[in-house]
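Researcher: We're teaching a course module on how sequence relates to structure. For the next exercise, students receive a sequence and then see the predicted structure as tokens, so they can try to spot secondary structure elements on their own. Here is the exercise chain.
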Amino acid sequence: MVMFAGLISPPICHARFQEPKKRVPLFILGDSLFDPGNNLYLNTTPESSAFWPYGETFFKRATGRFSDGRLVPDFIAEYMNLPIIPPYLQPGPQRFIDGSNFASAGAGVLPETNFEVISLPQQLRYFKGMVKVLKHQLDDAEAKKLLKRAVYLFSIGGNDYLHFYDENTNASQSEKREYVGIVIGNLTIALKEIYGLGGRKIVFQNAGLLGCLPSSRSGTKNGACAEKPSALARLHNMALAKALKELESSLPGFKYAIFDYYKAISQRTDNPSKYGFKEAKTACCGSGPYRASNCGGERGRKKFELCRIPGDYLWFDGGHGTERANRQLAELLWGGGPSSTAPRNLKQLVELEIM
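Model: And here is the predicted structure for the students to work with:
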């Protein structure tokens, strides 16, 4: 691991919130929507999220999060009475009894989606290493109980479909379905491995409205949404729901929830003012059409425009929401009704006793 000098501040210290015997840890796996800064510790070119104006609203510094402030998992940790869960790769001591965040910007279910970041299989390898540490810190029986009570929160798959679309613009319907099957098959393998290690409570944020991201609009005529990426997301979401339902039927104690991120973004795209946004097409930060690219970067090296009030915008940059949007999404994931999060919401899942 390589740490980039000057980019990272020391970890934030937090008090203990949950009672130890009732502790429900939060383990997070996924992509840039959930990455709190893991990619800053990779031996690659520093992410734009390592620089201002990322993080400006809440942290007052760039943390590696692709937003002006907190991400969905940061709010979920708050609702679960946990401290903000740090990046797994962050140097220094970590309280794995609270959880850990393995998410990596650019990651896919499939390693070939992006070889330069931490794919889901590699995140799973890190998770297995963390389990060994937990079993060393606690005893084996206590570690198993903790892993059984824990919540496993995922946001993964969107990059796989954006990559597939870029490489296969004119793919046939059968080719699309075959690719979705490969993604879901590999995802199912990962979930079964987590189950084998004791995981029982699985939560997914499904694939979003990929064709209506500012980065997608920038490549279409008149800034219209690109239908093909969104169609792939819909195929994925249907297959994901089916796969999780089958796992719940076949694996004793396996319970899940799916937050309909696709629907939530669609609603805010179609009627932004209803949700308190003034702009849902153009990003707050960036350059070019719809400010779809080049947000962040060392001052003078990258030129971009920046809005005055990020909370007026649905999107902070070309593909990631503002803190205000993330808070709304987290509230739906945590306590939303069946039309938002089903077959149960995250709060109900946390409270569920697994025998």
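Model: If you want an answer key for the exercise: The chain has ten helices and eight strands. The radius of gyration is 19 Å.
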